Amino acid sequence: ALLGGLEMAQATNGYSPTGFGTANKGMAGAGVALPQDAMAGATNPAGNFFVGDRIDLGAALFAPNRGFTADDNAGPPPAAPGDPSSIPPGTYDSRNDLFLIPHFGWNKQIDEVSSVGVLVGANGGLNTEYGTDVWRNFNNPGGTASAPTGVDFAQLFLGVPYARKLNEQHTVGVMPIVALQRFKAEGLEPFQAFSIHPDSVTNNGYDYSWGYGIRVGWLGQFTDRLAVGASAQSRLYMTEFDDYKGLFAEEGDFDVPPTVTAGLSFKVTPDLTLVADWQRIFYGEVKALGNSNSGFARLGADDGLGFGWEDINIYKLGLQWDYSPKLTLRAGVSYADKLFDNAEALFNILAPATVRTHASLGGTYQLDESNNISFAYTHAFNEKVAGQNPTFTGPQTGSVEMDQNELEVSWTRLFN
Questions:
Q1: From CA 399, how far away is CA 377, in angstroms rounded?
Q2: How far apart are CA 391 and CA 377, in angstroms?
Q3: pLDDT higher for 68 or 164?
Q4: Contacts of 364 (CB under 8 A, 6+ apart)
Q5: Whose CA is closest to 276, among 218, 355, 333?
Q6: Which residues contact 167 (CB under 8 A, 6 or more apart)?
Q7: Cα gap 91→399, rounded to integer Å
Q8: Could you give the residue ranges of the DSSP H alpha helices within 188-284?
Q9: How far apart are CA 219 and CA 32, in angstroms?
Q10: Which DSSP helix (H) or strand (E) runs through 377?
Q11: How far apart are CA 251 and CA 241, in angstroms?
């Protein structure tokens, strides 16, 4: 049943979600120093010590709007119909605008100083499906482009967080991670001529890879009002996508990039808590993502064309208000660096992860002593990146853009 979670796309900060768990998402992902539920380990495994014995089960409806525009300027002089170096002018919108993304977390207090848990969720993903043969003018020896054009990429992870309280101030945690990825590409036949493995570029159905890594974390409670937290996730070492070894750099290698997060929570009043996080995702360390596409390297090679993604910083700010004994309200905003520069824009029509600013609202309502319902709504504001790709489209310019909406609801069962 958990494999059903792969029927999704989740492209927020790059392809990493804003946060994990409904309470965390209600504050735009801020909360490395404010654990809220059994999914806390995905942000900071040290936090699971403080959430008690519980089960959290939820799902999100994720609605991304993404597409691109190819300008009618593939000259000078103006390109003739069928020019092999241009994308047919126009605006293209991707299909598949609604995805269901489930998550599950369980946590158990072992003794007075330690806890253990299990959590399953979506680490990220990307999906585009254009209902036309976008690359039909690229009459290369690799073949004539087919329709539809696009990619479908999803990640599922399982983590086992273990937390231990060292003293009254400091708690540490560790979470081994097992991850599963799925990928397919369609409509990229003209690029087979540029690959070291032309038969492993496109239209090979779904391919799967799995891998492993680890996340570690620390949480310090310095006063009754101030807590500070930090966590780091290693690179997740994944097996190669063999069916697409001619598309991704390093012959199908597509590891999950490492991340670091640090932040604080501060009780402004007994009922109002401020949280602030900084996160850095090292996309540039994965060659399939970080390699530039503004050159002439062969697809699939170690220096093969990528998406030109850079390491990014993400800044998150959230508020939590205990409105009443039964109702908690949340809000948050986040802002990220630009993921790729304008020179890389048009190749990213396959993965138009342009959004940078998110705003969230959320809350938790206590049904009774053992059951809670939580919700979070997040809007990612439209972001457009304009540019040109000298490798494939010569002087032709264009832009890629995206905005997103997500509504997540979860149920909590507390075991007192």
A1: 28
A2: 39
A3: 164
A4: 22, 23, 327, 328, 330, 372, 373, 374, 412
A5: 333
A6: none
A7: 9
A8: 249-252
A9: 8
A10: strand 371-388
A11: 8
Residue from 328, 326, 288 nearest 309 by CA: 288
Lowest mean pLDDT among 136-150, 153-167, 184-198: 136-150
Query: Beta-carbon neighbour count of residue 144 at 10 Å?
Result: 12
- DSSP state, residue 367: -
As a three-state string, the secondary structure of 147-193 is CCEEEEEEEEEEECCEEEECCCCEEEEEEEEEEEEEEEEECCHHHHH
Q: What are phi and psi of 71, to 5 degrees?
A: -75, 155
Among residues 332, 318, 326, 324, which one has the least CA distance to residue 374?
A: 326
d(CA 225, CA 227): 7
Looking up tokens 């003293």, which residue turns up?
167
The separation between the first and the last C-alpha atoms of the chain, rounded to the nearest angstrom, is 29
- How does the average pLDDT of the chain come out, rounded? 88
> What distance in Å separates the CA atoms of residue 135 and residue 347, rounded to the nearest whole number?
11
The label of the residue with tokens 């993965």 reads 351
- Single-letter amino acid code for the residue at 113: V
Residue 178 identity:
V
- Looking at the DSSP bridge assignments, the partners of residue 380 are 358, 404
Please write the tens of the pLDDT for every residue from 75-111. Answer: 554 444 444 567 888 899 998 888 889 999 999 999 9
- What is the dihedral sign for C-alpha 303, 308, 312, 314? negative
Assigned token pair, 184 = 């397919």
CA atoms within 13 A of residue 201's CA, in its CB half-sphere: 23
Q: Which residues pair with 397 in a beta bridge?
A: 388
Q: Tell me the per-residue pLDDT of 243-259, one tens digit each, with 9 for 90 and over.
A: 999 999 999 999 999 99
